[in-house]
Amino acid sequence: QEATVSSVANNDDGAKRAKQSGATLKCLRPSNPSDESSIEPMLHGTTTLFPKHGLYQSMEQEFKNSKDGKYWSEYEYVVHKLASEGKFTVHGTIQTRDKGHDGMSLKDFTNMDRPKKANLSQAEVAVLRLLTNHRWSSEINKCLRTGEDIALWSTSISMLISALLKLSVLSP
Length: 172
Fold this sequence. Notes:
It contains nine helices and four strands. By secondary structure, it is mostly helical. The longest helix has 15 residues, at 154-168.
């Protein structure tokens, strides 16, 4: 059963702002309506923020097809390969990739304490790891700031929003 933003928890600041902006956000009712801490309405609501395109391809397809596959190697590393500590330079500063995580797979990262406590999926962990990559994070931040090419990354953005909402529940 669907509900409009106005009927979602009245104390939900994000839902109030969406309603005030005239958004036609719709969301599914939580599976347990008596659980006021449920973030399900916002999780389901995020997928309708892309009205023209919706979620029409997987994250893998987005990384393979968007921008002529420019960020495919980052996706392939995070999702399909074992982590390997390595040095790289960002704006003249030498940084270490995956320090202390040599040999870990995506499944290993997903089974770490915080992701496990937040009940993050492998897709959510992958997108969080990708966000820490300087190349793709610049691209996605530009999309989020300007709105340009945002539909190219709609599934990844939805996974990112979902992961951040789940992690926020763990914050004091």
